[in-house]
Amino acid sequence: MRDRPFNVLFLCTHNSARSVIAECVMNDLGRGRFKAFSAGSEPSGRVNPHAIDMLAKLNYDVSGLRSKSWNEFAAPDAPQLDFVFTVCDDAANETCPYWPGQPMTAHWGLPDPSRVQGSEAEVRAAFADTHRMLYQRINIFLNLPLTSLDKMSLQRKLDEIGRLPRAAATAEPEA
User: Fold this and answer.
1) Domains of the chain
2) From residue 158, how far is each of 16, 69, 83, 86 by CA, in Å?
3) Are 91 and 40 in contact (CB under 8 A)?
4) Residue 87, pLDDT above cutoff 70
5) Annotation marks residue 88 as catalytic
6) Mean pLDDT across the chain, nearest whole number?
7) How many CB atoms lie under 10 A from the CB of residue 124?
8) Residue by residue, what is the 3-state secondary structure of 73-112?
9) Is 24 annotated as catalytic?
10) Which of 11, 12, 91, 110 is catalytic?
11) pLDDT tens profile 115-143
């Protein structure tokens, strides 16, 4: 039995959409077993309004969301991280800070919904797709037998989740 929840950090360059969505989904689905955070290598300083709007409409708690630097999580007083996931290609190719405790890491890259050009409906659809893909990946992760997998097997599973085909990752979650 763990004496604290697993701490999970989701990284993206600007920490304005994908990583913030992942933070909300993990905190909701993790139900106290997991505590999620998000950060960016070059934070924009604001959370994308489309992300906030979508998350609020889906009844996620958006009250404490903010765009922040990953340096906050490399500081000595930062939460001890168990898992670090990059959710955009830019952050996956950057040199990450040293994470105390050497958490498990994986790349779960997704298209950036904030780059979608088009009608309001098309932009909202892109954010909804991102949410569905993250929801699916996080749900799979949460159902892994974390305490019974050895480190190499767990790493393999984390990498497999990141390689889920887009069609599988966009499937609606089962009730």
Assistant:
1) 6-167 (3.40.50.2300)
2) 23, 24, 10, 12
3) yes
4) yes
5) yes
6) 89
7) 17
8) HCCCCCCCCCEEEECCHHHHCCCCCCCCCCCEEEECCCCC
9) no
10) 12
11) 999 999 999 999 999 999 999 999 999 99
Amino acid at 47: V
CB atoms within 10 A of CB 160: 11
**What's the pTM value of the predicted model, to 2 decimals?**
0.90
Say which amino acid occupies 82.
Answer: D
Helix 151-162 to helix 120-142 angle, to the nearest 10 degrees? 160
Residue 142 CB burial class (10 angstroms; 0-12, 13-18, ≥19)? middle
Section 98-102 average pLDDT: 75
Of the residues 20, 21, 81, 88, only one is catalytic, namely: 88
- DSSP code for 66: -
Average pLDDT over residues 44-56: 96
